[in-house]
Specification:
single chain; elongated; about 60 residues; alpha+beta; two-stranded antiparallel ribbon
Length: about 60
């Protein structure tokens, strides 16, 4: 892949990571006491023009 493609992809993924973390932190603060709780999470990445749907699942532990 080209350097331009790699830079574009890295920029997008950095934006996804930063904005997703902010959204999760905001939701956790709004939820109040999350100590000892576990939350199932799912991230869905789609690129319609490439017929791509990529799903990542996991857990986030409350603090």
């Amino acid at each position: 892949m080209s350097d331009e493609f790699n830079m574009s992809m890295r920029k997008f993924l950095k934006q996804v990571g930063v904005t997703s973390q902010q959204a999760i932190e905001e939701a956790m603060r709004a939820a109040g006491d999350t100590a000892g709780k576990s939350y199932d999470v799912k991230m869905v990445l789609t690129i319609d023009d490439l017929d791509l749907e990529h799903v990542v699942t996991g857990k986030i532990e409350g603090a």
